[in-house]
Amino acid sequence: MKKTLLLILALSSCCKAYSQKILTSWSQQNIENYTKEMYDQAQRLTAAELLQKNLNDKS
User: Fold this and answer.
1) Per the confidence metrics, is the pTM higher than 0.85?
2) Residues 6+ apart with CB under 8 A from 50
3) Which superkingdom does the taxonomy of this entry point to (predicted)?
4) Looking at residue 12, what is its pLDDT?
């Protein structure tokens, strides 16, 4: 029972570490045609403003 529990704990730790590695690598990639100014502007929007912008951009 102890070995099974330790195995499950070890596997979940490895999965979490791998997931964090993937997420970190994605966030460091350059996104084409997306500037720092555009990112900063998007961060200042409220949830309602962001929703409205996304709806307008789709149409």
Assistant:
1) no
2) 42
3) Bacteria
4) 92
- The answer to whether the CB of 24 falls within 8 A of the CB of 32 is no
Q: Each residue's pLDDT tens digit in the chain (59 positions)? A: 999 999 999 999 999 999 888 877 766 566 666 777 887 888 898 889 988 988 888 76
**Dist. CA 55–CA 47, nearest whole Å:** 12
Question: How long a stretch of residues is the chain?
Answer: 59
From CA 29, how far away is CA 22, in angstroms rounded?
11
DSSP reduced 3-state for 52: helix
- What is the DSSP-derived secondary structure letter of residue 28? T
User: Distance (Å, rounded) from C-alpha 9 to C-alpha 26?
Assistant: 26
User: What radius of gyration do the chain's Cα atoms show?
Assistant: 20
